[in-house]
TrEMBL record:
<protein>
    <submittedName>
        <fullName>DNAJB4 protein</fullName>
    </submittedName>
</protein>
<dbReference type="InterPro" id="IPR008971">
    <property type="entry name" value="HSP40/DnaJ_pept-bd"/>
</dbReference>
<dbReference type="InterPro" id="IPR051339">
    <property type="entry name" value="DnaJ_subfamily_B"/>
</dbReference>
<feature type="compositionally biased region" description="Low complexity">
    <location>
        <begin position="77"/>
        <end position="86"/>
    </location>
</feature>
<dbReference type="Pfam" id="PF00226">
    <property type="entry name" value="DnaJ"/>
</dbReference>
<dbReference type="InterPro" id="IPR002939">
    <property type="entry name" value="DnaJ_C"/>
</dbReference>
<dbReference type="InterPro" id="IPR036869">
    <property type="entry name" value="J_dom_sf"/>
</dbReference>
<dbReference type="Pfam" id="PF01556">
    <property type="entry name" value="DnaJ_C"/>
</dbReference>
<dbReference type="GO" id="GO:0005829">
    <property type="term" value="C:cytosol"/>
</dbReference>
<dbReference type="InterPro" id="IPR001623">
    <property type="entry name" value="DnaJ_domain"/>
</dbReference>
<feature type="domain" description="J">
    <location>
        <begin position="4"/>
        <end position="70"/>
    </location>
</feature>
<keyword id="KW-0143">Chaperone</keyword>
<feature type="region of interest" description="Disordered">
    <location>
        <begin position="65"/>
        <end position="95"/>
    </location>
</feature>
<dbReference type="GO" id="GO:0051082">
    <property type="term" value="F:unfolded protein binding"/>
</dbReference>
<dbReference type="GO" id="GO:0006457">
    <property type="term" value="P:protein folding"/>
</dbReference>
<dbReference type="InterPro" id="IPR018253">
    <property type="entry name" value="DnaJ_domain_CS"/>
</dbReference>
<dbReference type="GO" id="GO:0051087">
    <property type="term" value="F:protein-folding chaperone binding"/>
</dbReference>
Length: 342
């Protein structure tokens, strides 16, 4: 029996491409050799299988052949229904696949692409969670202060039908999503029969580990619906602000550094300013030779979990190597003498 790529990634055959990407990220992080030093040989084998599974299932052509004929058909052994297919040797239609990629290179490219995104919605994009018509349009909102601050009044019913929730963005910094924060929001609302103030201050307790797309609902704090004595709900949706040194990927933090070639070859230390309230500096020692596909995974230094008893994610550091613009003849000769050619 051939490899079960779906089982390796922990997904079903009906998984979407987005599901496949999330499954790869989850499995690759779990079995990255840096996180499994005590059983590194096993981790390296599983890490390679995970890369191969993702390479196949993320490619529509490979995935289609695998779904029909399995690993044997994909890799050139004719399946029971493929005799004479296209009159060519090998698998169906002469297709012959062999995984020859570098699992580390795939992992590095995957997370570098994530880091380079200009914004992050965590694992639940806004459009996925709140793209339904019943929510109404987004309400307008003024500037916002920091923790414990307040914001100018917003019109509760603005941008939405009175019988639907009034929906507003609530931008939060990565530090606030890491440590938690209290946000006081001033809301203006109309009332016909309800005995209440024309303004209300609503406090949103942002919990450590919350992701972009999380919504907080205050029932009955919006405009009164006609003269019914009932008021619309007010909904705040957590939006993640960009950060100068980190990008969030689910529960993980991505960090990118440029390093000179000499450090890449001889080892170096990376000091990372973390998101803790105490402005903790994390020192990461890199003793490996850093190639363009190198990734350093620091276990348990990512975002906290918003679930009780949940573990923290990881810190994932990727690198760009900066080559010298010029070398003297003497330097070149010393390099030739010092560096192996194979």
């Amino acid at each position: 029996m051939g490899k079960d790529y779906y089982g390796i990634l922990g997904i079903g055959k009906d998984a979407s491409q987005d599901d496949i990407k999330k499954a790869y990220r989850r499995a690759a992080l779990k079995w990255h050799p840096d996180k499994n030093q005590e059983r590194r040989a096993e981790a390296e084998e599983k890490f390679k299988d995970i890369a191969e599974a993702y390479d196949v299932l993320s490619d529509p052509e490979k995935k289609s052949i695998y779904d029909q004929y399995g690993e044997d058909g994909l890799k050139g052994a004719p399946g029971p229904d493929s005799a004479g297919s296209a009159g060519m040797p090998g698998g169906p239609g002469g297709f012959h696949y062999q995984f020859s990629g570098d699992p580390n290179d795939m992992f590095a490219r995957f997370f570098k692409d994530s880091f380079n995104r200009s914004s992050s919605f965590g694992e639940s994009p806004f459009e996925e969670m709140f793209g339904m018509g019943g929510m109404g349009g987004m309400g307008g909102m003024g500037g916002m202060g920091g923790m414990g601050g307040s914001m100018p009044g917003m019109r509760a019913g603005q941008g939405s039908h009175a019988s639907r929730p009034a929906v507003f963005d609530l931008p939060c910094s990565l530090e606030e999503l890491y440590n938690g924060a209290a946000k006081k929001m001033k809301v203006k609302r109309s009332s016909s029969t309800l005995p209440r103030e024309a303004e209300a201050v609503l406090e949103v307790e942002v919990k450590p580990g919350w992701k972009a797309g999380t919504k907080v609902t205050f029932q009955g704090e919006g405009d009164e619906i006609g003269s019914s004595g009932k008021a619309q709900d007010v909904v705040f949706i957590i939006r993640e602000k960009g950060h100068p040194t980190f990008t969030r990927e689910g529960s993980n933090l991505l960090h990118h550094r440029k390093i000179p070639l000499v450090d890449a070859l001889t080892g170096f230390k990376v000091d990372v300013s973390m998101l803790d309230k105490k402005e903790r500096i994390l020192r990461v020692n890199v003793t490996d030779i850093v190639s363009p596909n190198y990734v350093k995974v620091v276990k348990g230094e990512g975002m906290p979990s918003s679930k009780p008893g949940g573990s923290k994610g990881d810190l994932i550091i990727t690198f760009d190597i900066v080559y010298p613009s010029s070398l003297t003849t003497e330097q070149k000769e010393k390099l030739k003498a010092a560096l192996p050619r194979s």
